[in-house]
Design brief:
250 residues; 6 helices; Ribosomal Protein L22, Chain A; five-stranded antiparallel β-sheet; alpha+beta; 11 strands; globular
Length: 250
């Protein structure tokens, strides 16, 4: 994997930003949303599309009014990865979308993957089963509590981002890729490198955003991610689990 990528652009949106009605969705998206009976799945589906549409609108200068957003369609490829159709045509860039606890992030770039996690406890069994021996030692050297939780979630999140770049997702053994993470710089971004057993190397970045941890991975080196939104949106976000009030299908 050679050559340098442009800086990935990223944007976060929360459930409170979801528009009323479906005018901001394409016909196919509205039909898909209506077929999702469980509130959790429907809300996550809508939130991922809102983040992607707002990111594409911000990048291309398109209006964020509902009618304009409806022209930005976010289908899924057969393998599950999202892609963009701008008024029915591919726009010439890739997207990756992730959601967690009432918030979604979209990253726009070339051969890009992203993942959003809460900084929350991960069991010793989780660390043992899904992380390599080197990664387990990285987690074990951190102080117990928030620091260790952040380290375990950082490694896991970086794997998820890298596996999206490899277009396999969690169908692949997470121990077949190994993560090395650098300390954050003054701007909050730390570097990542992810090495696959077959010899491929993926680069990336990570940052702590309040209760959340965000990772971004790309197939080729390039500048660190740039926000398409005002700073602090995700850092000041409160995790939400609104679906717990209505867990069953409507």
């Amino acid at each position: 994997m050679t050559g340098e990528s442009p800086a990935p652009r990223w944007l976060a949106r929360g459930e409170a930003s979801l528009p009323a009605g479906t005018r901001w969705l394409s016909a196919a998206e509205a039909e898909r949303a209506a077929a999702l009976g469980y509130p959790k799945r429907r809300t996550e589906y809508l939130l991922r599309r809102l983040a992607a549409k707002h990111a594409v609108a911000a990048l291309t200068g398109r209006s964020a009014e509902p009618a304009a957003l409806a022209g930005i369609e976010v289908p899924n490829a057969p393998g599950g990865a999202p892609y963009i159709l701008l008024d029915g045509a591919p726009p010439g860039f890739d997207v990756s979308v992730t959601d967690r606890a009432g918030w979604a992030v979209c990253v726009v770039g070339r051969r890009v993957g992203c993942d959003l996690e809460l900084v929350e406890p991960r069991s010793p069994a989780f660390v043992r089963d899904y992380l390599t021996a080197v990664e387990q030692r990285f987690v074990a050297t951190r102080a117990a509590g928030d620091e260790r939780d952040a380290a375990a979630n950082l490694i896991w999140s970086a794997k998820e981002s890298a596996l999206k770049v490899l277009q396999t997702g969690l169908r692949r053994d997470t121990r077949s890729v190994e993560v090395t993470a650098g300390a954050p710089d003054s701007d909050g971004w730390g570097t990542l490198s992810v090495h696959a057993v077959e010899g491929l190397s993926i680069v990336g970045w990570w940052r702590r955003e309040g209760a959340f941890l965000l990772t971004v991975a790309t197939a080729t080196p390039g500048p660190r991610p740039v926000s398409l939104d005002r700073p602090g949106v995700l850092a000041n976000a409160t995790p939400r689990h609104s679906w717990l009030d209505r867990p069953s299908p409507r």
